[in-house]
Amino acid sequence: MLRYILRRIFLMIFVVLGVSFVVFFVINLAPGDVLSKIAPEDATLEEVEALRVELGLDRPIMFRYLDYMKGFVKGDLGKSYITGDDVFKTYMAKLPATLKLAFASIFVSILISIPLGIMAAKNRGSWKDNVSMVAALLGLSMPNFWLGLLLILLFSLKLGWFPTGGAIGFKSLILPAITVGTGLAALLTRTVRSSMLEVIRQDYLRTARAKGVKEKIVINKHAFKNALIPTITIAGTQLTRVLGGAVITETIFAWPGVGRLILDAVYSRDVTMITGCIILKSITISIILLIVDLLYAAVDPRIRAQFAKGGK
For position 304, what pLDDT does the model report? Predict the structure, then answer.
């Protein structure tokens, strides 16, 4: 297993290189530049060009990229052109808020999807199955921004139960988590249902029933455990999506996370901030996916055996 982990970490290097290259070049090719944001309104053309030279923006893009990566190798992700703040420190300051939202959203998703998916599989073709699938379809169809606005109107403005935005305590986390989590639950519910249907009529479950094992234990202990791998896959993938930044939800609820940080940097053409944040986001996502792969081994002995052979 150690060999497998080391190999994944080695491959992460190429992921970071590829992501940084694409982001750096795409942002630099986009119309406008950061000088329009930081130069004084009354600055002359000569002053703007002098500022461009000072920031090194007059150099060819390939040289600027190589200089940036030299700093990255040394642990320096640069400083924001707009605020002058260190990119790594800024990202790490925003990351806890994104982690809170991500894990809270996954918790909401699991809380909704697993009971619904199991119920739908147990009652295939019945009204319970149909209701569960309609609920999942509604979750897939409902845009996050629309659901978030509805929740704000009802629970914040009308009932006054929760704040309209910001990160000022546990209450401020509930509505954003529900907004993101319900959308994630839709896909996860269908995955749980499909996985359960594949195992629920297996011979070993019939044997357990014939031995007098209670149906609740057959479903929850034996069937669901064998249906966990696809569920873990989808849940892990969804977690990486939210860790990448639920930009729309963070904007609606004024949530101070990584998604809003990157969006603001894009608007400002802050190349250093954008590149650094996306590199760090890529590393975070790669680590999460590695953890998900290792969780497979915890629930499936066959995968543990593969890891023991070096992941082949």
Answer: 58
Dihedral (C-alpha) 291, 293, 298, 302: value to the nearest 10 degrees? Answer: -160
Report d(CA 4, CA 11) in Å as an integer: 11
- Within 8 A by CB and 6+ apart from 129, the residues are 119, 120, 121, 123, 193
Range 105-130 average pLDDT: 82
CA dist list (Å): 175 to 142, 232, 240, 244, 259: 15, 24, 20, 19, 17
94 with 52, same domain: the answer is no
DSSP helix, strand, coil percent of the chain (3-state; round to 5) = 75, 0, 20
C-alpha 193/C-alpha 186 separation (Å) is 11
Does residue 150 share a domain with residue 17? Answer: no
Domain that includes residue 33, residue range = 2-73
| Contact present, 132 and 220 (Cβ < 8 Å) | no
pTM for this one? Answer: 0.74
55 and 95 in a single domain? The answer is: no
The three-class DSSP label of residue 226 is: helix
- Token couple for 228: 């966990």
Task: Assess whether 48 and 95 both reside in one domain.
Answer: no
